[in-house]
């Protein structure tokens, strides 16, 4: 029988509160996910008791995964629990932007610079 290795990350406990807003906290979560992925674990992110989640945090902990792993691998190895519908929409946007960014990093940065600096 093939037993899957699983790893659950309790966001509330790691960030020490109910607001997931810091990219530094997101980086800590990313590092734990990355380590688990390298050992082929199935990872569950549990957002129980987290009331505020911003895209900065999600970009750091989940978005940057797309620079290291294929979308299919992430889809098969990462689950999220206890996210509101609004937070799931934010996560979906973060994932789509990350995929676009890592497909054409230079083009994405050039477009952003053109929009910001006008040249």
Question: What labels describe this entry?
Answer:
5 strands, alpha/beta, two-stranded parallel ribbon, 119 residues, globular
Could you please describe the fold and organization of this structure?
The protein is an alpha/beta fold and 119 residues long. It has one domain (6-113). The protein is 56% helix and 15% strand. The chain is built from 6 helices and 5 strands. The strands form 2 sheets. Strands 1-3-5 form a 3-stranded parallel β-sheet. A two-stranded parallel ribbon has the order 2-4.
Radius of gyration: 15 Å
Which regions contain 5 or more consecutive residues with pLDDT less than 50? Answer: none
The global form is: globular
Count of folded domains? 1
Strand order of the largest sheet: 1-3-5
Tally the helices: what do you get? 6
Helix content: 55-70%
Main pleated sheet: 3 strands, parallel
Helix/strand-derived category reads alpha/beta
Strand content: 15-25%
The average pLDDT is 91
Counting DSSP E segments of at least 2 residues, the number of strands comes to 5
């Amino acid at each position: 029988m093939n037993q899957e290795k699983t790893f659950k990350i309790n966001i509330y406990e790691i960030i020490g509160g109910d607001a997931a807003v810091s990219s530094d906290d997101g980086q800590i979560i990313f590092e734990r996910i990355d380590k688990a992925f390298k050992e082929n674990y199935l990872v569950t992110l549990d957002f129980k008791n987290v009331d505020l989640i911003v895209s900065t945090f999600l970009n750091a902990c989940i978005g940057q995964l797309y620079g290291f792993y294929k979308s299919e691998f992430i889809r098969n190895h990462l689950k999220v629990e206890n996210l509101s519908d609004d937070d799931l929409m934010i996560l979906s946007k973060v994932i789509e932007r990350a995929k676009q960014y890592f497909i054409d990093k230079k083009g994405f940065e050039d477009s952003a610079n053109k929009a910001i600096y006008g040249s």
